[in-house]
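How it folds:
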Amino acid sequence: MSTTPEPSSPMPYAAADTAAERNHPPQMTTPTAPAEHLLLLAADFTRHNDALTRLRLNGSSPATALTHQTASTQHLANSALHIVDTLNAQPMYHSPAIRTVYARVRQLAHPATDAADHLLDAVDILDDTRAGIPVQDEGPLLTYQQALGEAGSRLTLVRDLTALGAQDALTTAELLVTERRRRGVSPLHQPPALSPAQDAALRAVARGEVTITDDKPYVRRDDIRVTISTIRSLESRGLVAREHCPLWLHDERVHLTADGCHGLAPTFGRPRPPALTPARPASRPAATTAHAATR
């Protein structure tokens, strides 16, 4: 049984039309608020998945560790459902793209709910085995090692269900803001001025791809390079912050701050700043080797 309720139904299409959007009617939240919440949810998925990598079932109290992890997983589902409510507070036309946003947010909530259920199932398996109760009513009593194996298989499912949460949340946030721009509703605040390197770094951080070891950034993707000077410049502006990272061989994880979410969201749907190319001196014209013949 699911551990969280079904999300609220979206506002009916008549709640706002394109003209109303363009006239900027009174709103309960700013146009980028759901996108900012999605970026915060992306960071929570990253924290959650980092913690999963260190969760071991061979400790003294594996059931307790799983129970603590369940609270974090349920928080992901509840946060996604809250974003549905935030979307409902936005007067907007439910175009195909906006309907896709709703579907994507629910797709963030439902796997997190399933993941929490798998964790609770793993706790029940361990508790029942310790109490001498068969996992299945008519089945054989598992040994404790068998119970650990069953719990471990549930933990693997949880990792698979939540692995892409940060990337999916960022993609959904960008789709939302881009579609609202297309329909004439632009963010109410201007994003901070960002260099191409800072813009790329913020997006990589939002995807949960940037860690730091020995003061040297590591990015999970090979096509993006982030320098420590870029991280420090973003830190000095309050857009990112470092946190302890539980991954092996990684000291710190870089996350967006609330100001970073507030600054990144309004950049979506705008032309990306061009990448800088090394400047090269202009080539000099080749010297002529002969003078034109005179008449």
About this structure: Residues 96-130 form the longest helix (35 residues).
